[in-house]
Each structure stands twice: as C-alpha cells, then as structure tokens.
Amino acid sequence: MGNVPILRVFLFLWTCLFAFLCLAPEIRGVEAPSKENPPSNTGLLNRILDPEKFSFGGHFKNRVAASWPDSDSLFRLVGLETLWDYQSVLRLKGQYRFADWAQFEAHNETFYLVSDTRRATRRLEEILGVEFPQFLGIGAGLDDDRRLMDLTWTLDEGDGHLLVNRFDRLFFTVFYEDTVFKLGRQAVTWGHGLIFNPMDVFSPFAPTTLDREYKQGDDAALLNVPLDERYGDMTLLYVARKDFETGNPAWEASSLAGKYHWFVPGSQTELTFILGKHYEDLVSGLGAVGYLGGAACRMDTTWTYLDEENTSFFSFVANLDYAWNWWGYNMYGWVEYYFNGLGEERKKYVDAFFNEALLDRLERGELFVVGRHYVDTQIRIELHPLVNVYFNTITNVVDPSGILQPYLVWDVSTNLQFTLASTVFWGGNNTEYGGVEIPPLGVTDQQPNRVFSWLTWYF
C-alpha cells in the first residue's frame, strides 16, 4: 500500500504528458506575442506547451522462445518437456526540454510474461527450498529491491505468468555550457568491453544478452565536467541503493565513483581512469582505446579490494574489432579476451557455491561466470542492407566449454524489425557450460538450449 501514492503521482504526470501531446497540434496555430498583442497567461501556457519542446515515442516487442532441458539438468526433477515462453513489452518514451538549459525524460515499461520456464523454476524452488532470482533471465531484474526508488509495480503474478509496470528512466538533465548534471533513474555505462565489461559494475548486460537496445536504469546522480581540451573530462557518479535485507537506503549498499577520460596529445589513444567505492569494496581501474591499422583496440583492467574478505582481485578485458569487405559482402568482427579474477579454477566450480564474494556479484547481476579465462567473438555479415546475420561465441578456454549464438536481424520496414536467434551450450561433464554436477541431487546446473525470436514495432 505504501507505493500507491507514488503510483498515483506518476500516473498523473504520465497522463499530463499524453494530454500535452494531444494538445500539441492545436498549439501549432497560436501566433507568437507581438507589441500589439503583449504576452498573457495564455501566451505563457502556449510557450510551456510548445510542441517543439516535446518528443514522444516507444516500441512494442513480442517475444517467443522454446527451450529444451538436458536429461541430466535440474529440470529432470520437474519434467523434460519443451518449455515455451511468451513475453510482450511496451515501452513508452517521453521527453520535455526546457529551452536549452534542462530536460526531463521518462520511459515507462509494461511487461507481460507467460512462461513454462517460470512455472518449472517455481516448482524447482519448492523442491529445493532455494530461490533462483535470475535463473535463465526469465523475468529477471523486474524489481527495485535494491534500487533507491520503488518504481516497479507487480500488477498480476502467478507460477507461470507475470504482469509488471515500471519506470526504467525517470531523470532530469541540467546543462551549463558543456557541463551536464543528471539526477534520477538513468542508464550508466563505463568501460570498453564488448561482451564482458569488468569496469561496468553498476548494471552490466549479461554476456548472452542479444537485445541490448536498452540497459536497465539505476537511481543515480551524475556530473560530467569537460576540462580544457588538453586535459579531457571528469565524471562523478553516485548510485544510491537500499539494503537488500532491510529495504532501507544504505551507504554500505551504494556506489560513489569518479572517472577521468583523457585523449593523449599527438595520438589516437584515449585513457580512462576510475576510482570509487562500490557497496563496501574499493574499485579502481585503467582503460585504453587505440588503433592498430584499421582495427580498434580496447583494454580495461580493474583492481577490487574486498572489505569483508580483506583480500583483492584483478579483472581484465582486451578486444580488437575490424570491418572489411569479402566477396562483395560488408563484414564486421571482433575477438575479446576476459580474465575473471574472482573465478574458480577448473574442476572447482562447485566451490563457487561457497565463494561469498562471487555469489554476491552473481546475485546482484554484476558477474555472470564462475571460471577465469574466456574468449568471445562475433562475426556479422550484411547479406542485404536490411538483413544482417551474426554469429557470437563465448568460450571458457580452460574447460573447454562454451556458448554458440547465431542470429538474424531483418529490418522489415522503417518501423518494424524481426530477430531470430538461438543459444546453444556445449561442453563435457563438469565443465561450466556443459553442466556441473550437484552431488546431493545427481543432476547438473546445465541451462537449456533455446530458440527465440522477437518482433519490434517502433513508433
């Protein structure tokens, strides 16, 4: 009940936005004030409702997926039938600009999910007495349990379905010359990783996420200050969060960080330095971007001091990407290496269940692997200006085991896009992606292979 007043306020604001948009055509015919017709209250209202200050858009996505659990996986405990998942997502975007000095932006999302995977996962939770908050990514992250503002409302929920409405963006931006200040729910991305991004600790994409159009927002204050052109720019960031156990705002659960970005004079090299506090840990990092021939090279390394464990670990990512033409087709590709300093050695993945620092980051959605050494690649072929084929791979090079993700993107029309994809896991017994045996149960944690597609209409 505590969310109801907040919900009413934002529904009122959203209704006002729609009302402004509906009034906009009428406002276009209003003449500007003149000496003969001095400004009035009506003129002030017209300036406030100036359609040039508004922008509105969004998209509607329909997704369908089919998954096939392995006979040795956890799903054996609840049945091995094909799992069908359907999801519809409506995102409404509105922006209002106050002359040249500020703007307000809001994105509202409505998710409707009908999921066999969710139903099977709930049954597994009952059997095992544990929760899988981000299991398979089905409906994962659709809550504000850790975010400062509770802007998510579950309208209907069951074992196999979910209806959620939430604000994924809700922030003000203030401009002063070249300085930018943002306050509210916004997306923040640091680092240069393409699949793995150790410098992006706030809300990174999962490595297997193909739909990266929108990153989930966090409640933050961000200040970017350009320095003299010889000295780059400085960014200060504060991400406020609640304690997961108490639900109260907590400094120990928040992040405070600074980033310095600098172009090295006389070269094409960029350097990035970060230093900050994330939850109760100290994080520092160094990143570099340069060019090798026609290829772009990027490298990030981070050092994290774990306060509770009184120890530290390094993470590292380096990648190289290149575009070329072959047999008359435009092509693009990359290769990336990632070292996870918090990961477990080969054949010790069961120890991950007892690695508290690793588990914390898996649960918070900051880390997605339990091993140490990974190589990922992508090849993109433009079959037609409107049709592109991609092939992604992620490989644990120590096991070895990995993930294959072929997919096709077809721009059907100006406002319509279709994507068809699959995710295939490979590897032997007791490898990360082939499935690690859970001794007491006699099953593995292997995830199902999936085929999925989505159709997006933009407006």
Account of the 3D structure:
The model is unreliable at 1-5, 18-35 and 134-139 (pLDDT under 50). The two termini are 34 Å apart. With 459 residues, the chain is mainly β. 12% of the residues lie in helices and 48% in strands. The protein has an 18-stranded antiparallel barrel. Strands 19-20 form a two-stranded antiparallel ribbon. It has helices at 4-27, 41-48, 116-128, 356-364; strands at residues 54-68, 83-98, 102-115, 152-157, 161-176, 179-186, 218-226, 233-239, 255-263, 270-278, 281-292, 295-306, 311-326, 329-340, 373-384, 387-396, 401-413, 416-427, 437-438, 443-444, 449-458. The chain contains four helices and 21 strands.
Short note summarizing the structure:
The chain has 459 residues and is mainly β. The protein has four helices and 21 strands.
Overall pLDDT score = 88
Would you list the SSEs in sequence order as H and E?
HHEEEHEEEEEEEEEEEHEEEEEEE
Strand content: over 45%
> Radius of gyration, rounded?
24 Å
Q: Roughly how many Å apart are the termini?
A: 34 Å
Strand segment count: 21
Query: SS-based structural class?
Result: mainly beta
Number of helices: 4
Shape: globular
Oligomeric status of the shown chains? single chain
Give helix % range: 10-25%
The low-confidence runs, each spanning 5 or more residues with pLDDT under 50, are 1-5, 18-35, 134-139
Largest sheet: 18 strands, antiparallel, barrel
